[in-house]
Amino acid sequence: MQKAISGFGEELADGTPAPSLRALWHRASPGSRWLTLACALGSTVVVAVWVDDAPAVAATGVCLLILSAAALVDLVERRLPNELVGAAALPVGVAVALALAAGSPAIATGALAGAALLGAPLLAAHVISPNGMGFGDVKAGTVVGAAVGLVSVPAAALGLLLALAGSGGWAVARRRRHVALGPGLVAGAVLALIVAHVFDVQAN
Q1: What is the secondary structure of 138-150 as a DSSP string?
Q2: For residues 23-41, b (16+ Cβ closer than 10 Å) or e, as one string?
Q3: How far apart are CA 72 and CA 190, in angstroms?
Q4: What is the pLDDT of residues 93-111, one digit of tens each?
Q5: 25 falls within a domain
Q6: Which of 36, 63, 69, 144 could form a disulfide with 88 if both were Cys (CB 3.0 to 4.6 A apart)?
Q7: Overall domain count for the chain
């Protein structure tokens, strides 16, 4: 916990310690702060609406909540901390293990399918243009895909489309060639799961 507060135990490229979330929060623009809060709130809403149909959504919510903090880092510093992305993967891994132990392979299969649906296209984009798509985005996208796939595989595919559309629209609106993808991945996942619930998409 102390590492997470002080800077995730990581060092930046120049060897200096990574800044804390508190410091990044103060450096963030008002819009970045509101987006981070919206992602965090959306993570809890997703759990509330899906918990009766898909108990594994609790892991999804924790994962997205942690990645909301990673998204703040991405907004301010254009990087996704490995420790936060790794921490976000833990609840998903636990949910998969519990599902397999309980004889519910559909949940584990959904997580793998979701990870592939988001991770594979982002990895392809990274291979084609490493400067345009960072490997941190690939790792975060894979974790997001697995988290959403715990609940609904179609929602994982929709989440990727919403993430790319939202990030692309933001880039056009702000007239920027590069924008942080982390917030788009989290927001896209939240919106996709809410839309899937509204349209009664069946859980895994």
Answers
A1: HHHHHHHHHHHHT
A2: ebeeebeeebeebbeebbe
A3: 16
A4: 999 999 999 999 999 999 9
A5: no
A6: 63
A7: 1
